[in-house]
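QUALITY CONTROL LOG
STEP: pairwise intake check
CHECKER ROLE: data steward
CRITERIA: each record must contain a sequence immediately followed by its structure tokens, with no blank fields

ENTRY 1 OF 2
RESULT FIELD BELOW
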Amino acid sequence: VGIVDRLINRLLTEGQQIAGDPDADPLDALRRIVDGQIAFVVGERDIAQVYYREIPNLPEDDRRRLRRKQRLYLEDWVHLLTELRPGLDASAARTIVHCAIGAIQSTLQHSAGLPEARLRDLLRQSAMAVLAARPGTSDGQATPAAR
């Protein structure tokens, strides 16, 4: 738990510093947070895998504390995303952020077999595409911007 705590604290601190910088460009700040998540997943892969596999087995107090930190970290992403997409409500932004983080973390379930630099680049592109995606119309057809 100690190692995971330190990693989550690092992500949370970095995210708060990036999102809290009043002079930062929101898009650049979001890219930096995405890069931090990629660094965690790719650079600390073994620890990240253990964490995601074992968090349900942790004592309840540890699990709650770690989940609380995750929620705070997620809110930094949401803050930046809603600055970039002002028409997006917070609930929708949280869903989109979860999707972007899920795209990054999906590599924990398989070995991509790619050089690390290429993997990081693909993960960044994928996460940023998810964060920028525009929803389709109510009939399920893509909007002109999404085509």
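ENTRY 2 OF 2
RESULT FIELD BELOW
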Amino acid sequence: PRTKLEKKDQLNLLKEILNGSTDVTKIATKHVSQVKDTLTTLPKNRHKNKLTRNKPLAEVLMMANVERLQVASINKYMQTYGDLFEYAYKHGFVERNLFSGLSIKQNRQRIKNERDPFSPAQTALLIGTLTEDSSSFLVKKPHQKWGPLIGLYTGARLNEIAQIDLTDIRQEDGIWLFDLNDEGDDKKLKTSSSRRLVPMHNKLIEYGL
């Protein structure tokens, strides 16, 4: 449902930019540039922000001191338009897909709110606290250490770890592993490709798992 609403909003914006009466067969490079220029100046959450809500597109594009769409969001719009015109091309409505391959290259410089990874010292402190410090507030009962430790040594998602059954921990060809699956009434995975076998790190065995 959320994706459906997003796509609807993106397509409504396209109609608004190009005027609802624009003939799809007459779409030219200038129209594509107009769409891209609009997206780069479009305020974020236009229909939710009280400063921009219910106001004409031309007016909100001229506003100062409002947060603009991020590159990732702009690329989502362009992807939707590319998909739409790819359909139009394959069904003979247009001669070519002018929106194909027009994503904006993202600046790979560190974003100010990007989370830093744990440093080696922080990781060592966390592992030591989980495995050696019996007075730690993180581990009030012995079994509570396994969730974080499995996460540290597998990189698995939180819900994947929380739904591991004893039968999901087994040996195959002499190797201990985690069988991450959605077999059972209460187990779910993010995608079908999330079903996988993850070898158990030797450290987890040393810690007594």
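INTAKE CHECK: passed for both entries
DESCRIPTIVE NOTE, ENTRY 2: Strands lie at 169-172, 175-180, 196-199.
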